[in-house]
Amino acid sequence: MRSAAAAIAWEFKQRHRWGLIALIGDVSVLAIIKLVVVIRGVPIHLDSPETFALVVMMPLTVMFTYLLAVFSFGLDGDLSARQSMYPARMFTRPVTADALAGLPLLYGTIAMIFLWLVTRLLALWPAGVAIPLVWPGLLLASLLAWTQALTWMAYPLTGLRIIAAVLVLGLIDAMALLALHFNVRESVMLAILAPQIPLAYLVARSAVARARRGDVPDWRGALAWLTRVAGVASHRRQHFASPASAQAWFEWRRHGRSLPTWVVILLPFELVLLWVAGDSTALIVEILLSVLLTPPFMATFAAAAVSKSSQNASDAYGVSPFIATRPLTNAELVAAKLKMAIASTIVAWVLVLIAIPLSLKLSGTSAVVLEYGRRFSSIVGAPRAFVLLALVLWGFIALTWTQLVQSLYIGLTGRGAVIKGSVVLVLGFFFLFGPVAEWIVETQRLGRIWSSLPLIFSILVSVKMIAVLWIGTRLYERRLLSDRALVTGAAVWSIAVFALYVVLVWWFDAPHIPHYLLMLIAILLIPLARLSAAPLALAWNRHR
Amino acid sequence: MRAENEPVINVSELTRRFGSTTALDSVSLSMPRGAVYGLVGANGAGKTTLIKHVLGLLRAQTGSVRVFGLDPVADPVGVLSRIGYLSEENDLPGWMRVDELIRYSRAFYPAWDDDYAEELRHSFALDPAAKIKNLSKGQKARAGILVALSYRPDLLVLDEPSSGLDPIVRRDILGAIIRTIADEGRTVLFSSHLLEEVEQVADHVTMINRGKIILSASLDSIRESHRVDGRVPSLDEIFVTRVGISAATASDG
User: Fold this and answer.
1) Chain A 199-238, CB below 8 Å of chain B: which residues?
2) CB-CB: which of B55, B76, B104 is closest to A250?
3) pLDDT tens-digit map of B201-249
4) CA-based, 20 to 30 A from A374: which of A111, A355, A492, B3?
């Protein structure tokens, strides 16, 4: 290798050769389809949304996400950490910061534009839709460039990177959506997007140069009063009551404060919109809905850190010796994470529930919301309206907690293949969900699906119960949970299911909704299988 | 109550493979109570793999591992609550302060001795308000020794504790071993490739090479059996001789 540029390119190619092969495979499939249609004249119709999504959009999005992670070095690091995610091993190479930042940015830009151009030229796009030639490629490259700048930057507070990424990338996305909506000319889009890459490069270059000299800004001093309050609280308690409470404290200090912090940072940006909403009920409801969705949405990011066994472990996914040698059972280690997630959820929601009425009052929009509530309760009755409000609120809170802990059984396995495979599966599900839903609506199969709901729910419940039985047997055989814990867990779950069933029966008391269907829904809604699999996953990781 | 003469560690025919690499090959080892065991070997010989089995961090693929008569995988609490462990990585959480580390660690061990912990903290000059991540490597090792010793564990396991540390910290670590064995009936398993250290404190030496135990005996009998022309060779010399023989045998094979 004769130059640093060639060496860095070789490293990308060698490390991600399987991804490269997948990209070539994707391009080849598109090329073959095009050749068969154009040259051989074989009639293939890819106009239907589901086929188009499966053949074109899904591979494009998966490859885009993959390239984003590869060229931003986002596969290995901790997104919520303050430190730069640029690999420290590269700082010792005899190259300038310009090259360290510029080369991955250049290779990434080329890869993104190549991905778009081959997809644009080789894919069969729906008839009658004008697909722009250049600017979507530039959009992908801009998103990558800003992701690189934001991931390589060091931050003064933990979690700020995620907030910054949501805001900056969301802004670029919103710009693209508006352009599509208003059919903006390609030249205008080029003028907007083209400067993004050099701008992002300047930020990325500065970030890499600062990270290289170990410069991490620190605002924690400004928040020292918080630390002092926390310190006073911790000094008051000289000793932990039990090993379990010590471990719960450990988890809280490690991960518990992330979610409330992120929620606090995002809330003002959302709630400030109430001041411009006027008396538009629809807009106010939308704003409130987005505020209510913030904790569960941010919990999905926090969950990645929570479910990670340890950030200190040498193999990135494994349990660190410090945690693995705690004289605690696997169930106790998992229980500490569950308790921390409860505390984190409660704190985040207390903040939301204080901020919402306060903002409604101060922005003068409370009257609109109260009137909306009054109208609703006059339709369904006050008790039902109150129960529905409580159920919705409880649903959001439960969803937040579930988001935090539902992937524990994946993350705690400590196996890279399992973790990355689950991410691909989830992405695949989301990409298929939209087209499948559209297909159901367009082909008027909604009625048939509605009538098949009991069968679908029965199958899902059967799968869930078979999984629970399998997991329960393994937990019992390996003595990962005591008999008492197993019985107590089953009893608590049964009571929760029954309570939810009673509420559902009371609320949805309609002749066309059979009660057994509500029971099936209650069984599906109360989590059990994935939670009980967590100690099994940790045991697999801790005792390899 | 288990018999006093029962081995603290009993490893029988333990084999461990990582893919095509055999990390441990039919290793058998029995460590009675109240002695200092030096586990020596070159890098990659299998020392850490053996120690991880003792701690229950690796599950025996074939063979068995018993610590205090218990399976460390099946009963991690029973085993780990009696072991003090300091790893080569010394992965103490960087975000904790020293006093938080002490408070957190003491919750797990009913036998934690506050006075002893405070004495160690003073002698190691550890600032209670200092964050672990701001400590030097040597200070981190001292903090690790503090939490490993303060509950006077029945078994102290030190995995390459001196690796990359200065002579003063190494002296503190050796002092920790001496403190531990000063308490009657306590046992130390000490892995290192710094053989002069092992020579200073070990009663019994086990040499491991390419996953196999090539020599296991008391230090005195090892010295005696390797005496050449009336001169007692150092453990370094004995190790080089034994590993050289082992390597030659392997390459012949």
Assistant:
1) 234, 238
2) B104
3) 888 899 998 899 988 888 888 888 888 777 877 888 888 877 776 555 5
4) A355
Long-range own/partner contacts, residues A345-349 (CB < 8 A, 24 or more apart): A345/A259, A345/A295, A345/A299, A345/A397, A345/A400, A345/A401, A345/A404, A347/A256, A347/A259, A347/A260, A348/A259, A348/A260, A348/A263, A348/A295, A348/A298, A348/A299, A348/A400, A349/A295, A349/A396, A349/A397, A349/A400
Residue A204 burial (CB < 10 Å; 0-12/13-18/19+)? buried
* Residue ranges with strand state E in chain B: 9-18, 21-31, 36-40, 62-67, 83-86, 155-159, 187-192, 204-209, 212-218
State the Rg of chain B over Cα. 18
Report whether A476 contacts A486 (CB < 8 A): yes
Amino acid at A27: V
Residue type, A226: L
Write phi, then psi, for A369 (nearest 5 degrees).
-70, -40
**Residue carrying structure tokens 């696997």:** A330
- Which residue is listed with tokens 């154009």? A38
Contact state of A239 with B103 under an 8 Å Cβ cutoff: yes
The arrangement of strands across the sheet holding B83-86 comes to B83-86, B155-159, B187-192, B36-40, B204-209, B212-218
Chain-centre distance for alpha carbon A265: 17
- What sign for the dihedral angle of Cα A252, A253, A254, A260? positive
- Work out the percent of chain A whose per-residue pLDDT is above 90: 29
Say what the pTM is: 0.74
Looking at residue A354, what is its pLDDT?
Answer: 92
| Backbone CA torsion sign across A490, A491, A494, A495 | negative
Between B199 and A472, the more confident residue is A472
Give A351's pLDDT tier (boundaries 50, 70, 90). very high
> Alpha-carbon Rg of chain A, whole angstroms?
26
Q: Which position has the token pair 């399976």?
A: B71
- Of A227, A232, A132, A236, residue with least CA distance to A179: A132
> Sign of the C-alpha dihedral, residues A401, A403, A409, A412?
negative
Give the C-alpha distances (Å, rounded to integers) separating A13 from A6, A20, A95, A306, B138. Answer: 10, 7, 19, 31, 40
Widest CA span in chain B: 58
The C-alpha atoms of residue B144 and residue B114 are separated, in whole angstroms, by: 16
Whether A327 has its CB under 8 Å from any CB of chain B: the answer is: yes
Size of interface A-B (CB pairs under 8 A): 80
Whether A87 has a pLDDT exceeding 80, the answer reads yes
Bridge partners (DSSP) of residue B97 are B131
Across the interface, do B77 and A328 touch by the CB < 8 Å criterion?
A: yes
CA A412/CA A542 separation, integer angstroms: 9
Strand-strand pairing, B36-40 and B204-209 = parallel
* Cβ pair A544:B58 closer than 8 A: yes
Helix (H) or strand (E) holding A400: helix A382-405
Q: What are the tokens at A316?
A: 């990135």
Contact indicator for B213, B206 with CB cutoff of 8 Å: yes
In chain A, the residue whose alpha carbon lies closest to the alpha carbon of B73 is A543
Cα separation, B199 vs B203, in Å, equals 8
pLDDT digits (tens, 9 = 90+) for A238-297: 788 899 999 999 999 888 888 888 888 788 878 888 887 777 888 888 889 889 999 998
Q: Please provide the DSSP assignment of A156-223 as one string.
A: SSTTHHHHHHHHHHHHHHHHHHHHHHTT--HHHHHHHHTTHHHHHHHHHHHHHHHHHTT-----TTTT
∠ CA A463-A465-A469 to the nearest 5 degrees?
115
User: Which chain A residue has its CA at the smallest distance from B105's CA?
Assistant: A246
CA dihedral B150, B151, B154, B160 (to 10 degrees): -40
